[in-house]
Amino acid sequence: MTSLLIRNARPMGAAPADILIRDGRIAAIGPDLQAEGVAEEQAGGRIAIPGLVDTHTHVDKGLIGYPWYVNEVGPRLIDKIDNERRVKRELGLDPHVQSMRHVLQCLGYGTTLVRTHVDIDTDQGLAALEGVVETRHALAGQVEIEIVAFPQSGLLRRPGTVELVDAAMSAGADLVGGLDPCGMDRDPKGHLDAIFAIAEKHGKGIDIHLHEGGEMGAFSMDLIFERIRAHDMRGKVAVSHAFCLGMPDWNASQALIDQCAELDVPILTTAPPSREVPALKRLHAAGVRFGAGVDGFRDTWGPYGNGDMLERAMLLGMRNNLRRDDEVAMALDVCTTGGARAMDRADHALVPGGRGDVVLAEGESLADAVVSHAPRALVVTAGRVVARNGASLTVAP
Amino acid sequence: MTSLLIRNARPMGAAPADILIRDGRIAAIGPDLQAEGVAEEQAGGRIAIPGLVDTHTHVDKGLIGYPWYVNEVGPRLIDKIDNERRVKRELGLDPHVQSMRHVLQCLGYGTTLVRTHVDIDTDQGLAALEGVVETRHALAGQVEIEIVAFPQSGLLRRPGTVELVDAAMSAGADLVGGLDPCGMDRDPKGHLDAIFAIAEKHGKGIDIHLHEGGEMGAFSMDLIFERIRAHDMRGKVAVSHAFCLGMPDWNASQALIDQCAELDVPILTTAPPSREVPALKRLHAAGVRFGAGVDGFRDTWGPYGNGDMLERAMLLGMRNNLRRDDEVAMALDVCTTGGARAMDRADHALVPGGRGDVVLAEGESLADAVVSHAPRALVVTAGRVVARNGASLTVAP
């Protein structure tokens, strides 16, 4: 928890001002602030935004530092999953090293709060979790990492996984994960009952990957809603991707969105251009908490992405056809303050009293900063300078 | 028409080789080429690709060099069109200066062949065309510019525009443009009859903007097909955007695609993430020529884009869910050789005999070059070095 005075920044693209951070929190924003004995940084008129918030990524299994992975994987989800397990084994991928590389690259882009899904399976047991927990310790004070115990290879189809996810919750995981209850485990009741039981036992929340589209996704959402009610878990269950909320049948999708609002189910998107997605303005109108993430990158799933949440804000804006400056600002909010709110952090904002995470971005305007997403000049976490000129000060292993 | 020997490049990401350009054409690709008296460039192992091809942009009305345009425009197409005409008038935008800035920025990214739609309307008459024709002369030998006379404000709704488009065809335009025959002019027969009459009179081709989706777009496509048959214009009429080819009804959209193949109608996309779009593999399978473009950028329409066709290849890949390396290469092909073919250039390829347009891109692999789209080290047009390190050698006004 440090103090810092950032001179001559443009908070959210507004007129130049100084930003004073005291003991890790924003103490004041205004012209010509004075603070004896506090270190200073010159923003040079750059735009100041809150720390970027990545609500959906996979830090444990990217291939940063390895040669380019030539993707020749088959078209089905299970092809990608089986291929990934094999590649990880063959390369002897070290989850701690890879997650350090991943998180530090993202920190260079200004991401100071991350929710990551970490693979739990019968091949590697809790090794990925342990590696990411080690990374979380190593980078404490620079970036906050929330861990979801994620049964990437299925929960029921590979016996022993339920027990491993249960064990993960005592070994440092913050939330229970799940994956396509119909499509993956072919047993939606069994899958969801198992997840909710583990969450209830440990008093933790849930974040479920739901790629299932249309009516199948709607069915899985319905089963999730039933269990939120039964387990009294309002506000504790998030759904990632949730493509079914973008299904064309307005009545069907609106019924789901209304229940997300009623049961306070945060929706976390990666805004893929190739899929139906939950629409930003529609979720806003319904009052549903909404975050965004870069998903995996530089991995065996596909070539796109680099960890930059400003690029993701651009993609989110493009996916939602947000063209006006005030609309692009909405996309950026989802990638900062709004995403933090979806992760139950109410204080992640560039306002007095807010957490002292500040990113200096290039651009004439806030929208320009999003569209250009040039390397960040400075990244500050709770008053501490953690990255300069696009690179973290801590060097990745 | 110059000669140049590029040493130690990786053509299309393959093993290192030299590339010899003689008199503007690729003479040889191979190891340790010898060429007395020919200038040399060191590629340093970078990936060599053909010149990028932008088949759909608007060079005459971007705001490069002006302060950031704060977009507060209304949601309808006509809001954007009327707003743009007003802004151009108020700023006194110089189409020659703006098109120089636009094209040179794109050239810095490696675009050596461009098709641009240039506004023809009763406000500015042929001024935009004249400015772009001047730019075409000024940049001859560096970038090839094909001009579409584009009735952006409608052809029939503003009397006098038909005559202006007709005049444009004698003043340097290469193709007749059109725009949403139903949605814009509210008179599809009148709009299309007028366009085809001008094209026939001047013996030129056509490139129509068709944003109309679903059944309305299918109707307009049908009217276009009828006139291609009636005027015997197979291979001479391209359709830009063509969102209706992405309509969910497979039978309806396939019937349109099959006719595009039969009548050799090139489809030119900007791959917007927010709209239904023609699918790359589907058009390939049908044998339809397919190009891509950056559309307008840094203008009054929206904030996205910068003119980089490698970024566009990434967006095209993401929009089409192309994840395998061989699939990403397909997206890049649409942005180079395939796009050129859609513009009737059969010789735009990195092969002996091909046009000597070469771009050096950063990356471990071809897919990496697309996804990273880092600044280009070198751009060569017909053997002449025209850009280095992301910037054109000719300085924009």
Question: What does this entry look like structurally?
Answer:
2 copies of one chain form a homodimer. Chain A has helices at 77-91, 95-108, 127-138, 161-170, 188-202, 214-230, 250-262, 280-286, 309-319, 325-334, 337-342, 366-372; strands at 4-11, 17-22, 25-30, 40-42, 47-50, 52-57, 111-119, 144-150, 175-179, 205-210, 237-241, 267-269, 290-292, 358-361, 378-381, 384-388, 391-392. By secondary structure, chain A is of the alpha/beta class. Chain A has 2 domains: 4-49 and 350-388, Urease, subunit C, domain 1 (Roll), CATH 2.30.40.10; 52-343, Metal-dependent hydrolases (TIM Barrel), CATH 3.20.20. In chain A, helix 4 runs parallel beside helix 5 (188-202) and helix 5 runs parallel beside helix 6 (214-230). Chain A is globular. The interface between A and B is large, with 38 and 38 residues. Chains A, B: InterPro entries: Amidohydro_3 (IPR013108), Metal-dep_hydrolase_composite (IPR011059), Metal_Hydrolase (IPR032466), Metallo-hydrolase_Enzymes (IPR052349). Chains A, B: Pfam families: Amidohydro_3.
